[in-house]
Structures are given as structure tokens and as C-alpha cells.
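Milestone M4 deliverable, item 7.
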Amino acid sequence: MMEGAMKLSASGRITVSVLAAIGLVVTVPAAALEEDQHQPMYIEADAAELDEKQSTSLYLGNVDVTQGSMRILADEVLVHHKQDRRVQKIIAVGHPVRYRQRVEDDPDEVKGRALRMEYEADRDELTLIDEAVLIQGEDRFASDRIVYNRITDRVTAGTSAQGRERVKIRIEPETEPDGEPQAESAP
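Output delivered:
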């Protein structure tokens, strides 16, 4: 059984170590903006239902969630709160749900879409489920399940993320200003 490991540089270029037939693990040195997790979260929707006893809030219709540079657009969002009213978990459903966020030292945003997304605040982890796609720059990952941990800067996809499908990847070579692919230095 082979395991996959890939590294995503700040410029979005991917260096392939081993590509697995059954899964993928990606290290993303270009981390999500650290200050985003310390910003207040704003939610807009057509309707909202709050349940203080269950510590949940449900937002319906054209839901827009923002926190710093992070933005999630969905048809429906369920937020689980902790006792101190901080966000514990967000479950977003849509056709599709869309995600985007700026990353440190990179002009390209990380973008994602899926039919369902789950965000675990304590782990700072976003899981894209069903028809999942994650894009940074020209590089693109597609599978039925992709997990993006913003603390450890790792992306796991395919069966290594408990998915059912293989991972589909498009890797664009980094180009020089003249449009030619960049030559690699000898070690």
C-alpha cells in the first residue's frame, strides 16, 4: 500500500514526493492568516432560528459567514456554540457551499467548494464533503472528501481522509516571467 505526500509552496507550486493511488496528504506552508481566528465571526442570512437550550443557531437562505479573510457562502448553516457563546462547530450545506481565505505570504487565496462543509473551531479544521474541490493558484485537488487543517497547514484527501474516491490533482508548473517553466536546481 502506497501513501501519498505532497508539499504546496507559498507560490502555489506543488512538489510531489509520492502520489498515492488511494490517498493524498499535502503540507501547505502558506498558512491561513493567523489573525483570522481571532476576529469576530459575522453571519448574514434570509432567516435565523436560535435555540439557547441546545446552544445552536440555524441560518437559512443565502448564508454568508465571514471571519477576517475567511468567507463561507451556503444555503443553510448550523452553528454549535460553547457555553461562553464561542463557535464550536459550523455545518454548512449548499449546491455548492463555497469557501475562500487569504494565506500568509501568497497572493492567491485558498478556495474550496463542496455540497457540505464542516468547520471544527477547536481544531481549526475545515472538512469538504461530496464533490469536494480545493484550489490554490493554478493547483487543484478534487475528491469526495478533503480535510484542511489550518493550524498544521495540512490537507488530506481521498481515502486517507476517510473518503470513498481517489484524488484527482492538477499541478501547474511554476513559470518564469518569460512564460517558460522554471528550471529546477541540481542538489
